[in-house]
Amino acid sequence: MDFLNTFLIGITAGAIYALMAISMVLVWRSTRVVNFAQAGMALLSTYFGFEAVSKLGSFWIALPVAMVGGALFAALVEMILIRLLVKHSSTGPIAGVAPIIATLGLLGVIRATAAMIWGGQDVRIVGPVSNDGYSINGTTLVFSPLKLLILVTVLVLMLILSLVFQKTNIGLALRASAYAPEIAKLSGIKVDWVRTLGWALAGAAGAVAGMFQTVNGNGTLSPDSIEFSLLLVSGFIAAVIGGLDSLIGAVIGGLVLGLMISFVLMYVSSGLFFIAPFVILLTVLFVRPQGIFGAKAARRA
Amino acid sequence: MHKKQTRDILLFILGGVVLYFLSGMVDELRVYQGASIAVYVIAISSIILLTGYSGQVSLGHGALMAVGAYAAAVARIELHVPIILCFAIAVLAAAIGGALLGAAAARLSGPYLAGTTLALAIGLPSLANQFSLLGGEQGLLFDVGFPPLSLGADFTQYKWFFWIAALAALISMWVIKNILSSRYGRTWRAIRGNEVAAQLSGINIARSKILAFTISAGIAGLAGALLSMTIGTVSPSAFPLALSFSLLTGAVLSGITTLGGAMIGAVVLVAIPEVADAVANRIGSSERVTTNLPGLLVSALLILTVLFVPNGPVEQHRARKARKLTLKK
Q1: Residue B139 falls within a domain, yes or no?
Q2: Number of domains comprising chain A
Q3: Which of A217, A249, A235, A203 lies closest to A146 in space, CA to CA?
Q4: Strand A135-136 versus strand A139-140 pairing type
Q5: Which is it for strands B233-234 and A135-136: parallel, antiparallel or unpaired?
Q6: Do A212 and A129 contact (CB within 8 A), yes or no?
Q7: Within a domain: residue A6?
Q8: Are B245 and A108 a contacting pair at CB < 8 A?
Q9: Interface test with B, best of A17, A33, A101 (most B CBs within 10 A)
């Protein structure tokens, strides 16, 4: 029973990490930036969601509000910060680290601002369904309607995203701009707008991850909470395990990470909470430096 | 070349003399802040060496500082080694950690490396809670002892901290400066400029990158031990993720390739909490705002610098002067 419970906890957490990883991948594919502020943006969207919940009372209205808020904010960040960054800091010794530093700065700004506005109050979001476990033959599982809902929603979102990428013109434009921006531009795609769209989609996905991480945990999300740190690190690690370039990789990376953390905590030691993801990341990168699904870098000379 | 070296040594000695008189003239708080500045100078220059010269990013230097600090404290408590040896042990322990991390880092590039070190920065300090030797959440005491009596009765503890830190800062700046202008420094710059070209001219890329990481980590370890000296304890909470971030901020503010600029970044990092306090008092805001204002200022400054003065104020000034000169011709 322990085994099953551990598995179910891991897969639910993994689904949330997978969403976070997907938003990292979307940003990476559209602008070649690893967005360290992604978790911060998810945090902000979750606060939007909280405001909606406390005004309108329903989780099902708050979720789209958080998604739209997250998407708009992300689009704004791309249009202002990232475009300026490309214009000013793409040469010189700083070029390689400028995006990393800028997004870290953004993370700091969001954290501090959020703590100024919402810090100290009881920010609590109650999930739409109960988080009490199902019981089978008298034993209670840790798997609850809420966890089931999270899994299903994440799966549906992933399906929609991959359909958009594979079957629609927008998806084609997204893929073309990521693959060869110059050629995409020449064939009439408005690459700048496509990039903004990539960020907006990522913002929406991150918002869902933030909302679910909150209700799956103890119902609150604050910049100093463990839930938030996990979101920050795990989304990134899951994306890297998957290879940064691949949506499927992100999903598998997220699930693998969620399961591994869950099993390590259960069977090795619960004190390894933060060091486990690091060890998992190092192990994967030692075997495949470009991630499991990442394309090998082309020969440069 | 020889002449230049003598000039440098003289400059460093002069710097020491100026610091000596300064430390006698200001009050205790300023002396303490001076010690913090010296610690930050060391830590920032370790980032400048790593990121500015060898082109590798580390968001985990806070964790390496923790390694150095814990090594020094354990050596002091368990083995009662003399204080100067404690600092040497800190450098050694962090350098070993850095070599291990560097071996992993040499295979990774850009964002992958940044993320790995980020995970380390979050994970490593919490590991201290696993071993009773390291004192858990409370941490360990790290006491360098009272200043020697020969320095006089009114020689305060903070002044003693400042002296140790400032001396360490001067020495490490001198060492780093020499490393950077040596064969190794040139090798790193070559790799940063063009990895393939560097490889073709016979440079062993992996080995040079690991070396850079090792040296940088050793310096960070020294900074960590000094930091815990000024605090008096070593605990996980002294090395939060925010520390790693502010070091990077300091390095960017200094100019990522300007070793001499480390001072700028360090002063800004120490000054920001005070500025934030003053601002918060002026506008009379709530505690929520006051506690988060420093973080906001640091982060905003980081973004603005990277957008508008990407290579640092010193480099920017130099570039502007160079442009004027070519215009005149």
Answers
A1: yes
A2: 1
A3: A217
A4: antiparallel
A5: unpaired
A6: no
A7: yes
A8: yes
A9: A101
Q: Supply angle C-alpha B286, A38, B309, rounded to 5.
A: 75
Q: Can you read off the two tokens belonging to residue A81?
A: 């910060």
Q: Looking at the domain assignment, is residue B124 inside a domain?
A: yes
CATH code, domain with B270: 1.10.3470
Q: Is the ipTM of this complex over 0.95?
A: no
Please report, for residues A189, B56, B187, B287, the alpha-carbon distance to residue B203 in angstroms, rounded to integers and kept in the order given: 43, 16, 7, 54
B126 found inside a domain = yes
| pLDDT by 10s per residue, chain A, length 301 | 778 888 888 899 899 999 999 999 999 888 888 888 999 999 999 999 988 988 888 888 889 999 999 999 999 999 999 888 888 777 766 777 788 888 989 998 998 898 888 876 777 787 777 777 777 777 777 778 888 888 898 889 888 888 888 888 888 888 888 778 888 889 888 888 888 999 999 999 999 999 988 888 777 777 777 777 778 888 888 888 888 888 888 899 999 899 988 888 888 877 677 778 888 888 887 777 777 776 655 433 3
Identify whether B6 is part of a domain: no
Portion 39-68 of A in contact with B at CB < 8 A = none
Residue tagged 């390590």 (tokens): A264
Q: Collect all residues of chain A within an 8 Å Cβ-Cβ radius of residue B55.
A: 93, 96
With beta carbons less than 8 A apart as the criterion, state whether B8 and B171 touch.
Answer: no
